[in-house]
Write a structure and sequence with these properties.
Helices cover about 65% and strands about 5% of the residues. By secondary structure, it is mainly α.
């Protein structure tokens, strides 16, 4: 590895002094293969592009941007100055190509989002800013920067719009759009796994990330919670249950935009334990503009695995139905 290929060892001002600047990092260095595989599968749905064009054309770029930003305050040196400083550090660490507009909205729900079409922006809910400490908030900010750099924002914005229109019974959302929405939700959950990795790279402290997930899952302060117990809970969820339990786990996610935090924690630990996180910190990552044949191969494998996953799920449902039906009838025979 040449010196030009190593991460920049410039320390962000006001930080812990430990973060490396990931100069020129390509987003697919952190992207979960299932993220792109799910989006590829969705794009093969015949009505996908047509539905998105209709929704995009109906609203347009500027009205959508104003609708999201109308009840929020733009972060800058003179407004939410501490958050602005944390944001600048995250942009620098991930070597983001732009300084995207960042807003804080007076919303108690602990959440954040990256939205837009051609001009992406980030919104932090005030509940998130109040609950998290500086490092934890930096993880959330890095997570949202990751969404933008991975070109997730158009589809995330369309997902939010379709959910809102469907809830309102709006006529533009027919059966075709509802089918696209289910697919978008499936992709959205996979996209969160990619953004979690970007957030970790922004703070470069796995414990901070897992602690943030714990807080966002249950609220509460650090004094009220125990990270070790939460990790054990994540392991239990991942490993436990019979066939019927697996079905209910999947059904619990069908209409969710995000995977459960216990699942996200497990996926992130898998990535760390596989050594990919450490390799990136050593500078072993693809730069923007460079081809990555290994990633392309992973993508092909993930697309195949994704197809099998869908088939396996329906097989699990069928087996569970037979099992529960047998148990139900057996109760009458006894």
């Amino acid at each position: 590895m040449t010196d030009s290929q190593r991460p920049n060892d410039d320390r962000p001002s006001g930080g812990t002094g430990a973060r490396l600047i990931l100069t020129g990092i390509a987003p697919h260095a952190w992207e979960h293969p299932a993220d792109k595989a799910a989006l590829q599968a969705l794009r093969r749905v015949p009505v996908f592009d047509d539905v998105l064009r209709r929704v995009f054309g109906f609203f347009g770029e500027k009205p959508i941007r104003l609708a999201f930003q109308a009840n929020a305050v733009r972060v800058g040196p003179n407004q939410f100055g501490k958050v602005h400083a944390l944001y600048q550090e995250c942009l620098k660490t991930l070597d983001a190509p732009e300084d995207y507009p960042l807003f804080i909205s007076q919303t108690p729900l602990v959440n954040a989002g990256a939205y837009g079409m051609n001009q992406p922006f980030i919104i932090l809910n005030s509940g998130t800013v109040r609950l998290l400490d500086d490092k934890e908030l930096s993880y959330v900010i890095g997570h949202e920067i990751g969404h933008i750099m991975s070109d997730h924002v158009l589809y995330r914005t369309m997902t939010v719009l379709l959910i809102n229109l469907a809830n309102m019974g709006f006529p533009i959302v027919g059966l075709a759009a509802r089918a696209v929405l289910v697919g978008l939700l499936e992709w959205s959950r996979k996209a969160e796994l990619s953004a979690d990795r970007a957030g970790l790279l922004a703070v470069q402290d796995p414990e901070v990330v897992m602690r943030t997930m714990l807080k966002m899952a249950g609220g509460g302060s650090t004094d009220e919670t125990n990270l070790k117990d939460f990790i054990a809970q994540a392991d239990e969820y991942r490993e436990s249950g019979d066939v019927a339990d697996q079905v209910f786990k999947v059904l619990n996610l069908v209409f969710q935009t995000h995977p459960f935090y216990v699942l996200r924690l497990g996926e992130l630990r898998n990535w760390i334990e596989a050594g990919d996180y450490d390799r990136i910190l050593r500078g072993e990552y693809t730069r923007r503009g460079e081809p990555d044949r290994a990633y392309e191969e992973d993508l092909r494998e993930a697309a195949t695995a994704y197809t099998h996953e869908v088939k396996d799920f329906f097989g699990v449902v069928e087996e569970a139905a037979r099992k529960m039906g047998s148990d139900f009838l057996g109760g009458f025979r006894r």
